[in-house]
Design brief:
Elements lengths: L2 H13 L5 H16 L2 H12 L1 H25 L9 H34 L2 H5 L5 H32 L5 H26 L5 H32 L9 H28 L9 H24 L5 H21 L8 H5 L5 H7 L6 H25 L7 H32 L7 H27 L12 H10 L7 H24 L1 H4 L7 H7 L14
Helix pairs in contact: 3-7, 4-5, 4-7, 5-7, 5-8, 5-9, 7-8, 7-10, 8-9, 8-10, 10-11, 11-12, 11-15, 12-15, 12-16, 12-17, 15-16, 16-17, 16-18, 16-19
């Protein structure tokens, strides 16, 4: 055989399919898919799964679950052969699983973004082609992959509890779903908290606060798991439509708040020259319309009950009060880039005006959402008087809704006035705005309480507590006939008038900033310049 024939034979062998050819092709497909993934996701996942922290935590989870299996079987033997001990073992496995899901993974997400700022590598990310939303979503999906790794590690142990009887597969899946959703939400919250401050000494203090917060939530989760799995089984109404309806409502609220938190985290790492408020306010609008849709469905689904109306109105007012406390502290300065993107036409400008950053526009945005949501709920309640509601029930809902709305408008408007005054002395940011609204609310609760205790040493629930919204809330639910009293009706009207005066005062003081003017770009200014004059003919040259 010649050398040429040997070379041709080797070439034929190299081109022939090998037994592992299909696996190599599958591996190439995965590599091609990996090239299209978010690079932040790939980087964070590789760093997390190769880190010593993950190796130690994952090993401890496996070791602890093995020790718990032996201990539980030893403690329950020989009764475990006959009695349904599945819930007992499941509580232990879920407690082991909660530690990485509630403490380790959310804190790792917090540190992953905080360390980018501390080490100075975040500037490299900010000038890359990745958008802020891609950076946040990449880190969040990396946390989700870590959650799935821990779930897959304990899946055989959790499946073993089903074989021990006493627990159904739907309960196991439902509780694991709650733990998964809680871990994802806490990871998103950790990303938001990582952007609160850029100074190293404040980051150290914030790290301690965040880890203590997650540890506290971990212990709360332990008690909740014990209650849901081992102690209380009345909530497991899987055969009823209302249970799954409540689950869908919970998932709707969860998805909307997760979207809002991701939008907030993305806005915090966006350049200051960009519009940071637009996506956040769009997310708030989505939540608002989802809430109105659920209120309408609840009114149709439960036509004879007034409790769902009280519940939905309370959540709606509380939501807008919290959002308004943050929006009141936005910066009023608009960058030239934002001003250049303001529409030219007045109607278009008025329509998009509420998506432009600024505390005065944000205040009107919050007031519009709060008032429209409460009025829509009250209109639905009054519409139900045609079919099932009595007029007295509709009146109770209206007095309750107007009362809570009046409290929210008064406190938000008063907080905006205080923040506006503080901005004349120093820059009052979002943190100062939130603290101001909290102190105002605490003052409205504590001042009448202290005055009443010091004067007549009694704790009776009278109108001396009219500044306390919790007094109004508790009295409306506990006392029969409270909302039907003429004094309470007059008081709710007084709150609406007081809130209207404070809101009008804020509008007058911020009228100059409500509709900002559009600044032209250099290209627009050049195009708007008159053409140069034509040169005159020189008569001496002609």
């Amino acid at each position: 055989m010649t050398t040429v024939e040997i070379a041709q034979g080797q070439a034929d062998e190299s081109t022939s399919p090998t037994p592992t050819g299909w696996w190599q092709r599958f591996d190439r497909v995965l590599e091609n898919l990996g090239d299209h993934l978010n690079p932040i996701l790939v980087k964070e996942t590789r760093q997390a799964l190769k880190s010593r922290q993950f190796a130690v935590t994952f090993g401890l989870v496996l070791l602890t679950s093995w020790v718990w299996s032996l201990m539980a079987i030893y403690m329950r033997y020989p009764g475990i052969l006959y009695s349904p001990d599945g819930p007992f073992l499941l509580v232990g496995y879920l407690d082991i699983l909660l530690f990485p899901l509630v403490v380790i993974i959310p804190f790792s997400a917090f540190r992953s973004l905080a360390s980018e700022r501390e080490d100075g590598t975040f500037e490299l990310l900010s000038i890359s082609t990745l958008s802020p939303r891609q950076i946040i979503s990449g880190k969040l999906i990396s946390s989700i992959l870590q959650i799935l790794v821990y779930l897959s590690a304990l899946a055989p142990c959790i499946g073993f509890t089903y074989l021990l009887r006493g627990i159904d597969i739907i309960t196991i899946a439902y509780v694991i779903m709650l733990a998964f959703l809680a871990s994802v939400l806490l990871s998103a919250v950790g990303l938001v908290l990582a952007c609160v401050t850029q100074q190293r000494h404040w980051q150290s203090a914030l790290s301690v606060i965040v880890i203590l917060l997650f540890i506290f939530l971990f212990f709360m989760g332990l008690m909740l798991v014990y209650t849901l799995v081992y102690d209380e089984s009345g909530w497991r109404e899987f055969d009823k439509f209302d249970f799954w309806l409540g689950t869908i409502g919970f998932l709707t609220a969860y998805a909307s708040y997760l979207h809002l938190i991701v939008a907030v985290a993305s806005a915090q790492i966006t350049f200051e020259s960009e519009n940071r408020s637009a996506r956040i306010r769009v997310a708030l609008l989505i939540q608002h319309f989802l809430a109105l849709g659920w209120i309408g469905y609840v009114a149709i689904r439960f036509p004879t009950d007034i409790e769902p109306f009280f519940f939905m109105i309370t959540l709606l007012v509380l939501h807008w009060f919290v959002m308004g406390s943050f929006i009141n502290g936005e910066s009023a300065a608009l960058s030239p880039r934002v001003r250049r993107r303001i529409p030219n036409y007045l109607l278009d400008r008025l329509w998009r005006n509420w998506l432009i950053p600024g505390p005065d526009r944000g205040f009107i945005f919050v007031m519009t959402g709060l008032i429209s949501g409460v009025l829509a709920s009250l209109a639905l309640a009054w519409f139900d008087t045609v079919t099932t509601f009595s007029v007295s029930d509709a009146q109770r809902i209206m007095v309750y809704g107007f009362g809570l709305m009046g409290y929210a408008v008064c406190y938000l408007a008063a907080g905006r006035l205080l923040v506006r005054t503080m901005n004349l002395i120093f820059r009052a940011d979002i943190f100062v705005s939130v603290i101001t609204n909290i102190l105002l609310l605490m003052g409205g609760v504590m001042v009448p309480l202290m005055f009443q205790v010091l004067t007549n040493r009694t704790m009776d629930n009278t109108f001396n507590h009219w500044t306390n919204p919790f007094w109004f809330f508790a009295s409306s639910l506990d006392k029969t006939g409270f909302l039907e009293s003429p004094d309470v009706v007059f008081f709710a009207a007084f709150l609406i008038m007081l809130g209207g005066v404070l809101m009008l005062l804020n509008i007058l003081l911020g009228a100059a900033e409500l509709v900002p003017g559009r600044s032209k770009s250099e290209r627009d200014e050049i195009e708007a310049m008159p053409p140069p004059p034509e040169p005159l003919d020189d008569p001496l040259l002609s």
